[in-house]
Amino acid sequence: MLKLFGAGGGDHPMRSPKEAKRILEALPPDDLKSLEELAHWHESVSVAEGFKPAERAQLLLSIDDAAQARLRKAAREYTGAARPSRYQENRLWTHLHEYYKQAGLAFGRAIDGIVQAPKSLDPKTQALLAARALRTLAQQIKWQHMRYGPVDLGVWGVLNSVYAFSEARGFAEAKLALYPVSGAAVVAETSPRLEFLRALMFSASSPDSLLNAEVDLAERVIAELAPQCQLAAADAQGLIFWTDLKRPAPPQRAIKLPPASDAVRYFGPVAALAGLQAMIQKVEQTRDLPSSLGTTPDPEAALDLLRHLAALWAPEPPERKHARHNVKSRLTIAHGLTGTLEALGEGGSLDFDQKAAESWVVENVSAGGFGAVVPQVKSDWLKVGTLLAMQPDGGSNWVVGVIRRVNRITQQEARVGIETLSRSPKVARFRVRGLGEEIGILLPAAVLGTAEVFIALRTGVYPPGQNLEATFDNREHVYLPAGAAQKADDHELLRFREMIRDG
Residue 97 in contact with residue 126, Cβ under 8 Å? Predict the structure, then answer.
């Protein structure tokens, strides 16, 4: 690949500042092609011989500057309300992730060079390189979570090492403007410590249980509140997570203290938790996010995300509602609203084409759900929010649930957490007065004592706030709205209170 850009030293196309500027100003108009070229330039400049450390650092910063507007635009398209085609979605993800991968590697190599020649670069530029490295590495981890992994632990190894370098050089808390902003009256300041904290808090907030739009919003909330978080070398009140700067591993909850080491760092939300709770109250009252976080078309979904963060940042970790037991068994799986309807059949028929199903291995089970291994991840439908019909090995009944957590172990294998919605699902035709009928799935609660039911309908067919009606077993059933919809690609999961009257 490097042959595309010349060989080493004096022959490198970017060896001349004038030529480097021309190259960056002549990038293709297509943003993704530009990002592809910029990723290649990061790799080329970072490994080529003959550059002085200051020259290499400035080139890498200039390449990264040229990418920023294009990165923001591509990310907005990926996470926007209007979902791109599957082809375009894959293309966007590939170019975004590859850019951050090559940029992180390039900045990491530059820092390695500084370690070998400590006086080759002034402290201010060293701090800026470290902060850019931390930001790009954190973005690489974020985009891996957008596909539910696998998360490359080597990225955590580099990220932890870069922050350790910042502490060792004494500029971890150096205030700096990460990127030049033309015409801005106020430029937001950051520091290597703040960039590291942002990455730590993001990983500690269970991104593997979030939808893409929620991952993006979680990152923005954490960026807003990160200055109120704390990071320290010793355990203290409110520092509920820890990480080890010498290990290639993500942070962990401090359920018990880690082995003593000068590389262990404790961190937590501290004052940020109060800030998050105040944000929740404001959204509850106004139905709007703070302007600094942008707008959202779905205030209820934003509230769910904020409450998710608040639960994870609380001093006591969230408790499991139901005891979990280890098992080894198989489940036949049908997915999506269409697949679930086919599995249940009209009127509850169990006539289902098993060739269309998948077989998963259950590892643990509780009253509230399953933990399972997906041995062959065959497509991109496996994501948080997907509806599942599940039939235990040897059984004849179907259970309906929804995926709540996805963690890809490899490109082929994943672990999933499934919430059981109902053990007695029923296909029914629901009516909204004046709008006709719509086939859906009635999901009486899986856990006894719950007075509410879920109903799964095609996305967009239910007018919010309206009652649903259905007739079966010689009775009229009326369903009164009891909460916000949970939206997925092909369905909405709606919560109701049920009233029954004799027909």
Answer: no
pLDDT, one tens digit per residue, over 413-460 is 889 999 999 999 999 999 987 778 899 999 998 665 566 899 999 998
- The model's pTM: 0.86
Residue 125, CA atoms < 13 Å, CB-side half-sphere = 19
Q: What is the DSSP letter of 350?
A: -
Residues 350, 293: contact at Cβ < 8 Å? Answer: no
CA distance 333 to 387: 10
Widest distance between CA atoms in the chain: 88
Looking at beta carbons, which pairs linking 107-110 to residues 24 or more positions away fall under 8 Å?
107/60, 107/132, 107/133, 107/136, 107/162, 108/133, 108/137, 108/158, 108/161, 108/162, 109/46, 109/47, 110/46, 110/53, 110/56, 110/57, 110/60
Q: Output the six-digit token pair for 495.
A: 């919560």
Q: Which of 340, 311, 300, 306 is nearest to 486 (CA)?
A: 300
Lowest-confidence segment of 86-95, 110-119, 216-225 by average pLDDT = 110-119
Q: Are strands 491-502 and 486-487 parallel, antiparallel or unpaired?
A: antiparallel
**Is 389:340 a contact under the CB 8 Å cutoff?**
yes
* Three-class secondary structure of residue 45 per DSSP: helix
**Rounded to whole angstroms, how far apart are CA atoms 198 and 201?**
5
Residue 370's beta-bridge partner residues? 365, 418
Give the DSSP H/E element, type plus range, for residue 456.
strand 452-458
Q: What is the Cα–Cα distance from 109 to 117, expressed in whole angstroms?
A: 13
**Beta strand spans in 341-448 (E):** 358-366, 369-374, 387-392, 399-408, 414-422, 426-432, 436-444
Indicate if the pLDDT at residue 279 is higher than 60. Answer: yes
